[in-house]
Amino acid sequence: MADIDAIGQELANSLSKYEADYLEAHLEESRNNQITYRGKKLESVDKSTAIGGNVRALVKGGWGFVCFNSLDELPERLARAVEQARFVGGEKSNLAEVEPVVEKVPAEDGKNPLTIPLVEKKQLLDEYNDIIWSTPGIQTSVISYGDGARKTIFLNSRGSYIEQERRDVTLRLTAVAARDGEVQQAGLSLGSRGDFSAIQHLNSKVEEMAQRAVDLLSAPQLKGGEYTVVLDPVLAGVFVHEAFGHLSEADFVYENDRMRQIMVLGKEFGSGELDIVDSAMVPGLRGSYKYDDEGVPSTKTYLIREGKLVGRLHSRETAAKMNEAPTGNARAISYRHPPIVRMTNTFIEPKTASFEDIIADVKEGVYVKNWYGGTTSMEMFTFSGGEAYMIRNGKIAETLRPVVLTGNVFATLKNIDAIGNDLDMNQGGGCGKAGQMPLPVSNGSPHIRIQHCLIGGK
Question: Which pLDDT score, from 0 to 100, does residue 109 have?
Fold first, then answer.
């Protein structure tokens, strides 16, 4: 591969030669591995390397963007980005001010997945697949493993030069059971900030997952209606990310008149106990970093504090447009895309209630864990839970078929009346927006209780 360090230094010395209000460049080299099983068979083993970069130019409020997978002829690419920006621009350029930074940020410690031989990775996944298929009633299964390492260099015309390295590991397992025309599935999703040990020693969890898929074939289906619902940290984290977090991304708010009227800072959205945070500063999480893809330091941003909307997520451009502080949330999935406003690690902060406290006074309700998928449309959401159980007289009772939750996010936030003390972060997912997916993020919550939650059923 080319020496991106030397090229980065050469590029930094040339930015001042171009007539633009602002210039930035990204250089990147990455290595990725993917292993997929479908059913009992190994379906694919993929290994890829990539090197490339992009330049962004801002001239009179217009952006020019050029990406490339060859590090030759960079002066021509810079000139082209400036020319594009000049063609688009016709207003005043406005970016929130950020102090220039020169720093090198190494990858976090951990069992580096790129040093693990392929045969050892395959042996582990074979073991998990054998566990799934040793469960009577399984019809098919899917295992998807991925790991990667990425080194980026960011530099801009204000004098920043930031080199960052990161690693990533993900594992997703799905078991599908069938009997007499009935089909049910169960899943397990994990990830880490590049520590391979996070996906080892999962035998008991994989066995439990496969058996759960079979057991669901005999579970009753809940009658649809309004219930008191308790969500586990995984599903509550997905809810806060999908249903509320995307509404807090400032580009979405700024471009949508209706959301600007709804997402007014200071507006009450929940009880005084409700605090929702997005932060890339939490060590060891997949959404964490020291600097975003505009060279802005990561922050801890309260979106809701004591029930009131107090913040949103910004790039430098949206922060300037809305006269608010930048939050370090401009991210790109790779050098092929410009950075846009994205979440990092989004979660509900824990309070004091235990799980037993939360369910103790529920006469009849539903406990929902994990998730399969969901959709959101503005403030409306629909999520499919992965597991469901009746709550009767303060105790967890019979297993149910998976349920579907639906509602208005703002009404649902106001109906949260208990927040647990057991914050847990889900690291197995990836976020999608504007064609950029799956971006490494994490989300989480303690157990929460929601009154008057609508559940679909028979």
Answer: 81
